[in-house]
Structures are given as C-alpha cells and as structure tokens.
Amino acid sequence: MATNSSRTANMPSLGLALLPVILTLALLGVQIFYFGDFTPHIPLAIGLAITALVGIKQGLRWKDIEEGIFHVIHVSMPSVSVLILVGMIVGVWIASGTVPTLIYYGLTILSPQIFLAAAMILCSVVSLSLGTSWGTVGTVGLALMGIGAGFEIPMYWTAGAVVSGAFFGDKVSPLSDTTNLAPAVTGTDVFSHIKNMMPTTIPSMLIALVIYLVAGFTLIDNDNASFERITAITTSLQNNFEISAWLLLPALVVIVLAVKRMPPIPSLFAGVLTGAAVAMFTQGAGVHDVLTYANSGYSIQTSSDAINSLLNRGGIQSMMWTISLILIALGFGGALEKTRCLEAIIRAIMSKVDSFRGIQSSATLTSVATNLVAGDPYLSIALPGRMYAPVYRGMKYSTLNLSRAIEEGGTLVSPLVPWNAGGAFVIGALGLSIGNGNFENLLYIPLAFACWISPVLGLIYAQIGAFSPKATQEEQERWEKQGEAIADYATGSATDRNVSGAYATK
C-alpha cells in the first residue's frame, strides 16, 4: 500500500515565524496576569493551532504538522512516564511511612539554620546518583518540603533549594538523559562535556550554598514557638505511623538500582513495589488501599493541620494537570519545529552574529527562549545544538562551548519556566499550588539561585573569553573525517555562510 511521504515546509519569513510565538506569549500574559488564573493549557493549545495555520500557509498538510507534534511528544514520553511513577511513589511512600520517617528524622536531626544549604546538597548528591532531577524532586524533594514546613520556612525558599540541588545534580550526572543529549547533538563526548561545565558549576553551587546559609542564619526564626510546632508534628507522625530507619528501604532500593546504572523507569517502579510491600507489612495497609494510594494519593485526617497538608497528596491523578500541560507544551514545540518557525528565528539570529562572544551568548539565550516558547527542555537542547554546531566549527572553537551553553540554557532554565515541562513538574510534585492563586510560590524561581547563576556566569565568560576552549587540531580533523557541517567564514556574507554551513547536512 503506498503512503504519502512527509512534506517539508517552506522557510517562513521572520515576521511570520514570530507571529505564533508573540501571540502565544500575549495569551499567556492575559491568562496569568490579567485574569489571575495560572492555567496555561488553553493559551498553549491556541498557540499550537496558530502555528499549524502558519505551517499550512507554508505548504504543509495537517498530517505533516501532526507528525512533527507527535514526534516531539514521543521523544519525551520517558519523562512523562517518570512523572506518572513519581505520582505513584509519592502516594505509596507516604503510606509506607518512608516520607513520614524522612520528615521525622529531618526535623529531629537538622537545624533550621542549615536546612536550606543541607537541602541543596542532599538533592545534588541524590540527583547525581540517580541521573534524574525529576525523580529527586518527587521523592527526596517532597520530604524536604515537609521538613521545611515543620521549621516554618516559606515553601518557596525550600522549593528554591530543592530545585537548585536537583537540577544541578542532573546537569553533571553521566546517567542523566540531558547530560548525554547535549554532547550528542554537538558531537562531543559526555565526560569532556561534564569537565567543561565545572567552571560554571562549582562557582554557582558555592555562591548558592553561601546564600542559603546566610538566609538560614538571618531570615529563619529559631524561637521556642517553632520548636513547639516541630514537636507537635513529630508527635503526630509517631501517633499515625510506625517510624523506623527500616522504612527508608524503598528509597535505598531506588538509589542502589540507580548506582548500578539501571534505567530510571524500572528503578522508580521498583521503588513503588517496595513501598507497597512496606506499607502492607509495617503500616497495616491492604492491597486495595495501596492501589488507591498509588492512583489517587494518600489521605489522612489528624488533629494536626500541618500533617494533613503535608501528607494528603500523591497518586497518578494528582499529576494529570501537570501531564496535560506538558503534552500540550510539547505539541506546541513540535509544531514550531515542524513548521520551521524556530529554524527561521535562529537563522535570523545567526546572520547577525560574527564573533565568538556573540554566538556563545546567542546559543545560551536561544536555549532559554526555546524553553520559554516551546515548553520542552529536550527541544531547547537539541534544536540549538543542531543549528549552531556548524558555526562553532567554522569559527574553530570547540563545540564543548556549545554543549555547555545549551545545557545551561536548557536543563537549568527549564524548572524556572512555570509552563515548561520542567517547571510544571516542579510545581506539581512539590505541591506549590500556583493554580489556586498562590502566586507568591512562584518566588521559588529567583530563589533557585544555582539554576540562573550558572548561565549568567557562562555569559560573562563568553564576553571576556574565559574558559572558552578553541578547537584542537585533533578535533578539527575529526570533524573533517566524520563529514560534519562546517560554516564557511572565509567567504560570503554572514547570512550566506550561516545558511550554507549550518544546514549543509540537511
């Protein structure tokens, strides 16, 4: 049976390419700031429709646009699967006593002054071990939110520390999908990529650590009232759950499997099963109870409002708001890519840039912009990586500079954009409740210091030429041998060389 081949869209003009982007951002602004309703789903869906109309005008059929939409969704399905598993873990690990035990020990061992710094370090270590920021946020991050609430620390401060640690651990973990994606699309190896990120990673983490320590000793109240609340919470936890170090077994299973380099999805599912077994054998939960907790979340009513707010959460259904947002955002990003709108915008940028500092800054900011517009951290890494790589080769700069730029503009910025897949997950998993009008919880964005300090440092390095390696002779010979696209900077105008070089392999 014959099938129609997929068409390629004609390149839209810059004005036409920007049209769906501008209109979508305007709709988001009206929905969020004018109506005060943080539900970006419909503005993004309308943006997808506008993008589709642009694609049809450029010669595509709906079938072609649909193919682009579902391609991006398909690529990102493992992350959506992680989100589903995290929902199950949250519900089951509360029922098993794992989360209550973590909260109990955290409140009794940690002091309020060092809590934020300890939270960032702990999330960094766990994320580095697991290779997943999402898994870290949904497990350890959840427990830390409970501890922070016990210390009467505003939840946006705790969320900022959790996000800083989790996404930075993800950024430098050789087990992370984004850490492997960035060097893959730029033609470098993962360990050289990780090494080249240290000049921004280490200072950013140290600066964030100092800020969290200063905040802990200056902003956090350490009076008797706080400790009365902590005592009330720990007593309530003991009254409603068996508290024991053995209940940390589900978390230990996940960490051990991750260290043994098991894939994230089976590792997290093993954590669900272990948590279910612990819930039945130690907390007296029945089989149907465990299934309900995994699907609908844990439910408990105690005399403590703090405990009720901390532990009444989780389950697959609690993640549906976030999952639906991610799927729509990914579809919008796929439509922008298929219609070549993003390509046209990036081409316009590259045609104006003629120096390393300009191209390095443009690559980072393009990743940030893709996060803002397309809502997909993978697209924010893959697309600029493919588009800019020939330009770096033409300038004879190592593509390690590019892989660092897109990692920082992609991985680290994604949790800071509420309608991005990363940001939506953080808001959903940590229970920030933005949709209820609690917009102060968005303060976690500026308080996730490490996530935005690192790209800023990268931009500063680009301007002064620091930590910006030139391509070695070996690297240049490898480009030639592998037939990599190399922009020609010897002849032609900026526009000509970028178009012919950057897209020579297409």
Order of helices and strands: HHHHHHHHHHHHHHHHHHHHHHHHH
The main pleated sheet reads as: none
Q: Helical stretch count?
A: 25
Give the CA-CA distance, first to last residue: 28 Å
Q: Determine the structural class based on helices, strands and strand pairing.
A: mainly alpha
Unreliable runs, pLDDT <50, ≥5 residues?
490-506
Total discrete domains: 2
How does the overall form come out from the CA principal axes?
globular
Mean pLDDT: 82
Helical fraction equals: over 70%
How large is the radius of gyration? 24 Å
Beta-strand content estimate = under 5%
Beta-strand segment tally: 0
Describe it for me?
With 506 residues, the protein is mostly helical. It folds into two domains: 15-76 and 325-438 and 452-502, no CATH class; 78-319, no CATH class. The chain is 73% helix and 0% strand. The chain has 25 helices and no strands. Helix 8 (155-171) packs antiparallel against helix 10, helix 9 (177-186) packs parallel to helix 19 and helix 17 (341-350) runs antiparallel to helix 18. The longest helix has 29 residues, at 190-218. It is globular and about 70 Å long. The two termini are 28 Å apart.
